[in-house]
Amino acid sequence: MLDIDVEYVADRLPRELTDVEKQRLEVLIDDSIELIEVAFLRAGRDFHADLETVPWLEAAARRAVLEMVSAATLVGTNTGMRSISSTTGPQSDSVTFSDVDSVSWGGVRLTDDLLKLLGLWHRGARGRFPRPRRWPERWSP
């Protein structure tokens, strides 16, 4: 079983968390572990069995959960915001949104970098393909 709790994450964040954030942290930790389990199942592997047999996986999984949960916690309601401007004069506010790869609107996200960390990233085409035909060669006497 992966040993990670609220204190483990909260001790590594750059600021103190409120009680509401700590309660949300528990849910985000569970969500991130569930995403990792699903990613392993989609790759045809068992996350909990691999935790016991692969020596580096527990540390990598802890790091992945920490990254997922801290991104969702620290970004919070500013998810997807690229820039914010405000004018005090006759009131003007402006927000620009963009796609953010590390945080989703609903909480945690398992990025390609984290999949690589967990050993689940495969590059290139997968499958069996026929060999390419050889270029015709001519022989000169």
Structure description:
- With 141 residues, this protein is mainly α.
- The protein has one domain.
- 43% of the residues lie in helices and 9% in strands.
- The protein contains 5 helices and 2 strands, in the order ααααββα.
- It has helices at 6-10, 19-42, 47-53, 57-75, 112-117; strands at 81-87, 92-97.
- A two-stranded antiparallel sheet has the order 1-2.
- A hairpin with a 4-residue loop joins β1 (81-87) and β2.
- α2 (19-42) packs across α4 (57-75).
- The longest helix is centred in the first third of the chain and has 24 residues, at 19-42.
- The N and C termini lie far apart (72 Å).
- The relative contact order is 0.15.
- The model has no long low-confidence stretch (mean pLDDT 80).
SSE topology:
Blueprint: H1 6-10, H2 19-42, H3 47-53, H4 57-75, E1 81-87, E2 92-97, H5 112-117
Antiparallel strand pairs: 1-2
Structural class: mainly alpha
Shape: flat
Question: What is the arithmetic mean of pLDDT?
Answer: 80
What's the number of domains?
Answer: 1
Poorly predicted runs are none
Percent helix: 40-55%
Number of strands: 2
SS summary, helix count: 5
Q: Radius of gyration in whole Å, from Cα?
A: 23 Å
Which sequence of strands runs across the widest sheet? 1-2
| N- and C-termini, Cα separation | 72 Å
Report the major sheet. Answer: 2 strands, antiparallel
Q: Beta-sheet strand percentage?
A: 5-15%
Order of helices and strands: HHHHEEH
Short description:
This protein has 141 residues and is mainly alpha-helical.
List key phrases describing it.
43% helix, 5 helices, 141 residues, 2 strands
